[in-house]
Design goal:
The protein has 369 residues and is mainly α. It has helices spanning 5-18, 32-55, 63-73, 83-117, 130-143, 148-178, 182-207, 210-220, 229-248, 250-256, 260-265, 270-292, 298-310, 314-338, 347-365. Helix 2 runs parallel beside helix 14 (314-338), helix 4 (83-117) runs parallel beside helix 9 (229-248) and helix 9 runs antiparallel to helix 12 (270-292). The chain is globular, with a radius of gyration of 21 Å.
């Protein structure tokens, strides 16, 4: 079995941690109490970030206003806000911030899982082509001359979800003939992604007018603006479920990160586990992209950054990555709202601008740059 240089750097720390030892943890690698403290700190930071993110925007919302809105919704004896301000906080700001947290957690978990399954340090949630499929589905619904009732029922979000599922179905069909080897997953995902990207461009160029193209381009770059409570509820169900399944597969992920032969020698059902984890990441990515569009770099940089703090074992890495991804996207969305106020820019632009230097910093810390 040949060694993958990109994976070795991820694997050696895990191998050292998997050794049975009675000696205290090495300096720089947190032990169990430190990890518990780190997780608790992450939860507190996330709660504070959600509260602060709800206040940030073109219209000022005070801490007391936020407390009154939440108190009124919980049935407490508080003086309600004026209807316009109450609607701003409850119907627009809060679901948007919660959606950013859920999507950030989903993308970070997907990136963590895919980096282990594919043994590729550059893997991210859009490696499987699901994002491109969702984009193609959304554009098709918005641009192609569908009948009025069909277009209204399906909507851009529904079209994106259908496109994501179609692209993932094509990926599985191709992998069924070639096998679920990590290299084939990467190459097939790239091919499927390029196919649906080409279809998106073709539909836009052939059928869309200038205004529609501008609006769809904004959506394709990622935006939390469409977030509403019904979408938040869906993500609030799917995201924790995906995290739980990934966490249950943490030991298998540790084994898969060393390669299929090593995982099989440890009693892991390689093909079954890979298929399950690919389905989980595809569903998480599909729901995220169908709701808010394609947002890059979160699933790429967050796992690497968290790995430096929490260590390489996936039972620890996955929940910490979810927290870090949630916090990162909450603040990124807040920055997208106020950086060029009153004009809002797509959050995917901000994640790319922040992600590139952060990823270069991570590579430098890992000695790869």
């Amino acid at each position: 079995m040949s060694a993958d240089p990109g994976a070795v750097d991820l694997l050696l720390p895990a191998a050292r941690e998997l050794r049975v030892s009675t000696t205290p943890p090495r300096s720089g690698r947190p032990g169990v109490p430190a990890r518990a403290g780190l997780f608790l700190a992450g939860v507190l930071v996330l709660v504070a970030s959600v509260a602060a993110g709800t206040r940030i925007g073109s219209a000022e919302v005070g801490w007391s206003d936020l407390g009154r809105v939440l108190g009124a919704r919980l049935g407490l004896a508080v003086e309600p806000l004026p209807p316009l301000l109450d609607s701003l906080v409850w119907d627009l700001r809060l679901p948007r911030v919660l959606m950013a947290a859920l999507v950030g957690a989903s993308l970070a978990v997907c990136g963590t899982v895919l980096q282990a399954v594919t043994r590729n340090a550059l893997a991210d949630p859009y490696l499987l082509g699901v994002s491109s499929g969702a984009s193609a589905g959304a554009v098709a619904v918005a641009v192609l001359p569908l009948s009025g009732p069909a277009a209204g029922t399906l909507g851009i979000t529904g079209g994106a979800l259908v496109g994501a599922l179609l692209s993932f179905g094509l990926l599985l069909a191709l992998l069924h003939r070639t096998g679920l080897d990590s290299g084939r997953i990467v190459l097939t995902g790239v091919v499927v992604g390029q196919l649906f990207t080409a279809l998106t461009s073709l539909v836009l160029m052939a059928s869309a007018d200038a205004d529609t193209t501008r609006a769809l381009t904004h959506w394709l770059l990622g935006s939390m603006a469409p977030a509403r409570w019904d979408a938040v509820v869906v993500c609030a169900i799917v995201t924790p479920l995906g995290l739980v399944i990934a966490r249950l597969c943490a030991n298998a992920l540790d084994g898969l990160a060393f390669g299929a032969d090593t995982a099989a020698s440890l009693g892991i059902g390689v093909r079954r586990t890979r298929m399950l984890l690919l389905v989980v990441t595809a569903v998480l990515t599909s729901v995220a992209v169908a709701t808010v569009g394609a947002i890059g770099f979160v699933g790429l940089i967050v796992p690497h950054g968290v790995r430096l703090l929490a260590g390489p074992l996936h039972r620890v890495l996955l929940p910490h990555a979810a927290l870090a991804g949630a916090v990162f996207l909450v603040w990124t969305d807040a920055l997208a709202r106020v950086a060029f106020a009153p004009r809002e820019i797509p959050v995917g632009v901000i994640t790319a601008l922040l992600g590139v230097p952060l990823f270069l910093l991570v590579l430098r810390r890992r000695g790869e740059l």
